[in-house]
Design brief:
This protein is of the alpha/beta class. It has a domain of 152 residues: 2-keto-3-deoxy-galactonokinase, substrate binding domain (Nucleotidyltransferase, domain 5). The model has no long low-confidence stretch (mean pLDDT 95).
Length: 302
C-alpha cells in the first residue's frame, strides 16, 4: 500500500461496524460501531460522525468498505458480482461514491445459481476468503473448500484463487430461533450437564434426520434432569453437525474462517465426521482482504 498515505478500510456487517485507519501501510487505529440493521439514522450520517474523529487529525485519501454496507439497508447498493470470479474481477465490480467529499468504494458481494437452479448470495465472506488466500499462499493454488461459520454460514469452493461457488446454511439463525422462541431448551431451572456435554451428544446424533433428533433437548431435561445449558449445547452440536455432514465432505483440510469460539465448535464437528481443519482468524482475514483490494486499486493507478 504505497500509493495512499492515509486510508480507511472497514467491514460493515449486519450487527457491527469495524473501521481501521491505515497509515503508510500499517493499521494505526480502530473504531467500532453499529451494524446496518441497528442504525437509527442514515448510514452516511453514522459514517461521517465516526470518520470525523480521524479527519480532525488529517485528511483521508480514500475509504474501502465491504459487507452489508452494500445492501439496500446500507450506504449504497453494490450489485453482486457473479461467480466464478477472482480477486481482480471482484474488485472491478465495486461501487464508488462520495461521502463528505471523500472517495468511497464498496466491494460487492457474490451471487450464483447452482446447477439445480438454487439461488445463492453473500456479502462480506468473499472478502475473508480472498484475504485468507492473501495470508497463506498455499491456499491460492489448487482446489479448496472454505467454511465461514456464522448466522448464515458459508461453504466456499475455490480453484487456483478463483471463487467458483458457495452454499449457505443459516445455522446460527436457526439456533437463535430454536433456543429463543421454542420450548425445546425448557425453563430456567437447575439440571445436570454442561454445554460441552450436550454438544458432544448432539454431534453423536447429527447424521440422523433433523426433525426426529431435535426433541431430545426437551425430553432429556424432563427425564434425565439435564440443564438448560446442556440442552443448548445439544442443539448446537446437532445443528452444526448436520451442517458439516451436508457440506463439509472434502478430501483436504478445510480452512475455518471466523471467531475462534465458533470455529472451535466447527473444528470439533469436522473431526467427528472424519474431516480436518485449520483455523484462520476472521478479523485478520477481512483486513487482509480489504488491504488486497487497496493493492489492486493502486496497481491500476500507480
Amino acid at each position: 500500500m504505497t500509493g495512499f498515505a492515509r486510508r480507511v478500510i472497514g467491514d460493515w456487517g449486519s450487527t457491527r461496524l469495524r473501521l481501521f485507519l491505515v497509515e503508510h501501510g500499517e493499521i494505526a487505529a480502530r473504531l467500532d460501531g453499529p451494524g446496518v440493521t441497528q442504525l437509527g439514522e442514515p448510514a452516511e450520517r453514522v459514517l461521517a460522525r465516526m470518520l470525523s474523529v480521524w479527519l480532525a487529525k488529517g485528511p483521508i485519501d480514500a475509504i474501502t468498505l465491504c459487507g452489508m454496507v452494500g445492501s439496500p439497508a446500507g450506504l449504497a447498493v453494490a450489485p453482486y458480482a457473479p461467480c466464478p470470479v477472482d480477486a481482480e474481477g471482484w474488485h472491478r465490480a465495486r461501487t464508488r461514491l462520495r461521502v463528505l467529499g471523500l472517495d468511497v468504494e464498496i466491494l460487492p458481494g457474490l451471487s450464483l445459481r447452482t446447477a439445480d437452479g438454487v439461488p445463492e448470495v453473500m456479502r462480506g465472506e468473499e472478502t475473508q476468503v480472498f484475504g485468507a488466500m492473501a495470508l497463506d499462499p498455499a491456499l491460492r493454488g489448487g482446489s479448496h473448500l472454505f467454511a465461514l461459520p456464522g448466522t448464515h454460514g458459508k461453504w466456499v469452493s475455490t480453484s487456483d484463487g478463483v471463487i467458483t461457488g458457495f452454499r449457505t446454511a443459516p445455522t446460527g439463525e436457526v439456533y437463535a430461533a430454536i433456543t429463543g422462541h421454542t420450548s425445546l431448551t425448557g425453563p430456567e431451572t437447575p439440571g445436570q450437564g454442561s454445554f460441552e456435554d450436550g454438544f458432544a451428544r448432539g454431534l453423536s446424533r447429527s447424521s440422523e434426520a433433523l426433525p426426529g433428533a431435535l426433541f431430545e433437548a426437551r425430553a432429556a431435561r424432563l427425564l434425565d434432569s439435564r440443564s438448560k445449558e446442556w440442552a443448548k449445547g445439544y442443539l448446537s452440536g446437532l445443528l452444526i453437525g448436520a451442517e458439516v455432514s451436508q457440506f463439509g465432505s472434502a478430501p483436504q483440510t478445510i480452512p475455518l474462517i471466523g471467531d475462534p469460539s465458533l470455529t472451535a465448535l466447527y473444528a470439533a464437528a469436522l473431526a467427528h465426521h472424519g474431516g480436518s481443519s485449520q483455523v484462520v482468524d476472521g478479523e485478520a482475514a477481512v483486513i487482509a482482504g480489504l488491504v488486497h483490494a487497496i493493492t489492486l486499486a493502486e496497481s491500476r493507478h500507480p
